Amino acid sequence: MSSILLQLERIWTEAQAIWLSGGWAMIALAVNAFVIFGIGVNAWLKLRAKGFHAVREQVWRRWIDHPDERKGPIGDLLDLVANGHSPAESAALFEEVRTQEIKPFERDLKVMRIAVSTAPLLGLLGTVTGMLTTFAALSSGSGGDQTMGMVAAGISEALVTTETGLVIALPGLFFQYQLARRHEHYRAFLTHLETVCAQTFHRRHRIERRAA
User: What is the DSSP letter of 56?
Assistant: First the structure.
């Protein structure tokens, strides 16, 4: 146990040293990473809470005609949209659901795309500042150990920030792609649900007219 703690302490010390060598651009990269993965995890949890993958189609189709059996997030959604008294009212209810649930996801995905695109640029900015530090050391130093230390610090800053920007951008891009796919699945589910509800309404209307 003690060896594991010592190893973790060593890793933390090395990571802290690498972080500090990146200069002030690492702060901007940290904020950028927090935006990407904070928004991404929040959107993922919200989509997961919708429960549209957890209920089979045969089940929620039955729930349309049997309101007493509805349960969970899909049951709550059907309580909201499946009780319209006309096709126009049902369409208005579905449009309200899209406005309340789809639009926030689209906004979050847009912010994620911007943040993912910004990460390599922030890394490049750190590269530029690191190279400026290197050139400043070369121009002002006398070639001794102190000058070489300043040059090494500038090169380290340039490389660390570039690597950090790429390390943030690559998983962020993959995460954003997965969220976009899941978001499209939810949109498709709502569209399919609206179609089924409309068909059910017209079927009820035909039965009522025949009974009349």
Answer: -
